[in-house]
Fold this protein.
Amino acid sequence: MILSGADIVVRTLIEQGCDVVFGYPGGQIIHVYDSLYKYRDELTHVLTAHEQGASHAADGYARTTGKVGVVIATSGPGATNLVTGIATAYLDSVPMVAITGNVLSSHLGSDSFQEIDITGITLPITKHNYVVGCVEELADTIREAFKIASSGRPGPVLIDIPKDIQMAKCDYEPQAPSVPDERRQADDNRIREAAECIATSERPFIYFGGGLISSNAEDELLELADLIDAPLGCSLMGISGIPTDHPRFLGMQGMHGHYASSMAMHRADCIISLGVRFNDRVTGNREKFAKNSKIIHIDVDSSELSKIISPAHAIRGDVKVSLRKLIDNLSPIKHEEWWKTVDSLREEEAKNTDKREGMTPFRIIETLNDYLKPETPIATDVGQHQMWAAQYLNFKSSRKFITSGGLGTMGFGMGAAIGAQMGTGEHAVLVTGDGSFGMTLQELSTAVSYKIPLVIVLLNNGVLGMVRQWQTLFFDKHYSNTILERKTDFVPLIKAFGGEGVRATSIEELKTSLEKAFSYEGPYLIECVIDKDEFVLPMLPPGGAIDDIIVKEDDLRA
Amino acid sequence: MHEFTMAVLVKNKYGVLNRVTSMFRRRRFNIRSLSVSETETDEFSRITVTSFGDDTEKRQLADQLSKLEDVCVVRELTAKDSVGFELLLIKIRNDPENRPAVRDTADSYGAETVDYTRDSVILKLTGSTRRISAFIDLMRDFSILEICRTGVASLERGNTTIRQVKI
């Protein structure tokens, strides 16, 4: 059938299995918005307050569902407002397709009104991007974009569509949705060598990240752990990959990782690393990282295998199929001695549990845990609250922790929570801080308009806590520009947006508020005032090694 | 640390060179020379890049190139298994005192005079990167006005072609 380019955009999105897109209209994408009106019964468009919010919403949708998230914006500022969202998705390998309008092809390159070279700008933060050259290429370009976004290591793809291409007409025939490339098979010999390394190790440790979740290899992970009797730890991106209370799970690695997890990985003689990229926030001092262990590194992206560390066994392959092969090459093993060590590390960790009562970060998150269902998606922003959430939240199922790990995007949370809610249909939670929340709180209007059931737990300490923590520790308490002398009153603020909110000053009040919040059909904010000098601990100082780990506040104040 | 040459077969599309060089820039690869050319088919262009680093850096360069959607094949061309040449144009001040010495040096390298004026001479030399660098080094005894070199053009020896290689 003969359709306009704009209609082809919308029809191809529907064809690709898209049910909801996030975006914001404008002059150079107006034809696509006319088609969205035409096909509104088949494809829901969520209008956000700002394009950045739309990009984070598409991201949150993709992370929770595993599907490709779609965001649409106009040219110029519309497109540049997507940049932070696209970069966030790129750094965390989230499948996303961003569609931008642009000026007439004949005007490209002449600095026309709202013209920007968005493909140039997004070159380093997309897997690939396109300027569509003619309407005949449009449908196939979108199909290819979906394929690229979801194949191998996922990531964002941008398609820039000049206005004349949206208006031009050509034949369109619907096709079946693009399927991702076949999962990459690992080399059998490499797998056998790795299996031998595991079989002869005495202290194996499994370390997994976001790549494990992207590959849906959660079951294989637990099967391997049981088979070789290994403890498990994860990166920030791996959180929720397995249930937090799983007896083999020691928690997160890295700068603010769990003590037992970090120490166990340090003492292991064989680290089986799955879909991780050894970011500096995990390794600390690279020279001293895991010096006494053999590292097996499995990743679908071979460039990760030689980037930071030199593993003893580098295996390029999809994590799920590689794990399956690895399991087939192994027999059950027991490591009783190793577990004695691991258990003693856990006991040591337990001694440092924050036992204070009242509105401490630990008690707040602990209380929130009681109200979560296994299906509840929880988004965060970036900073101290994010680390507390990562450390203390209890997850029961995968793809429920939605956080900006790689880019560390403050302001990610509101949009991401909206996307996560729409992706799952569940009552969502946002754990945020006053700094991050202040960056994108205009998306409250979106949450109100679309009646998004969302509980916002705002940890308000009146400061930029994470930077303050560094200033306390490393900058002689020079609190340069981290004290927020704001007079924002968050409870009336959310009411002004059309939502509900309350300030909780005790754990009892928090409980009552959570009760109300989870039965409210819209955004419900609970402001929890906490002390400005709460620390995120443990802490591995930047560039430090495992021996430099700070576990207690007493160590700091001494 | 050693020097290496990669042949990169890319889709012959608008902006491909920019994608490749943008990746080099942001990942801070050391690029010694880079040349782009048409190939035997309209479908592909060929980029020849010389860089230096250890084996890990070499692998990173190949891996990061392979990740680009428009890159079809990345192939290392070793000195042993390939032939590689570049072209040099060098403009020297035509100084009467040095004229015989310049001519002698040029002759001994087989460099051709392609422009001759009262004040300047342009010499052309084709050869390996090493030979060209050695020639330039000798020319530093005289007054070099300008240098332009093309970067390496290189092909694998024998009947193997880059399009036969699978990524």
